[in-house]
Amino acid sequence: MSQQSRPTRPRDAEATRARLLQAATEEFAAHGIAGARVDRIGAAAGANKALIYTYFGNKEQLFDAVMDVHVTRVLDQVPFTPEDLPGYAGRLFDFLLANPHQLRLATWHRLERSGTGHEPGGLRDSMRQKTEAVAAAQAGGQVPDTLGPEDLLTFTLALASAWTPTSPMAPASGRDAREHRDAVVEAVRRLVAG
């Protein structure tokens, strides 16, 4: 088949960018930044790896873009309810179980990107707003103030992620995810009850 008779595929920069982000999510979750390979990302996305540099700059900036997408996703899909921290913990547990790459990516970010000046989009503001919301709920008497708002939020987040696939205990548990979810919600309920 000659070059002239080969059908041309219309270029769709947004679709290509989306495929690169999806392929990069898989690659970074499995290998981190140092172990990730742009040639594998390009091949998995069905795109020339040079487009990674065109769209994102370099591998670290591609990772940052992946983190921004995933942080925005969890912030959008898991509504924070300071007056119902057990319910929030249950929803976050469900989200993390359905999206196992979320915590892997966050772990790689802490290991390989901390101190670089890049904070995933909206994360710092979200944590500040959540802490302020817990403090306001405590001031309004909706949540006991036996623990400080930062501690209460941190413990809630930790409990919600305790039984995800990245947990060292999860594979050995043998219990159903629903049982773990119930335990997480109950643990946060007791934490909030003081």
UniProtKB/TrEMBL annotation:
- Respond yes or no to whether keyword Transport is given for this record: no
Return the Gene3D superfamilies for the record: Tetracycline Repressor, domain 2 (1.10.357.10)
State the DNA-binding region(s): 37-56
InterPro entries (alphabetical): Homeodomain-like_sf, HTH-type_TetR-like_transc_reg, HTH_TetR, Sco4008_C, Tet_transcr_reg_TetR-rel_C_sf
**Entry keywords, A to Z:** DNA-binding
Annotated SUPFAM superfamilies: Homeodomain-like, Tetracyclin repressor-like, C-terminal domain
Residues covered by the HTH tetR-type domain: 14-74
Pfam families in the record: TetR_C_21 (PF17926), TetR_N (PF00440)
Q: Does the keyword Metal-binding apply?
A: no
Q: What is this protein called?
A: TetR family transcriptional regulator
* Organism of derivation: Actinomadura luzonensis
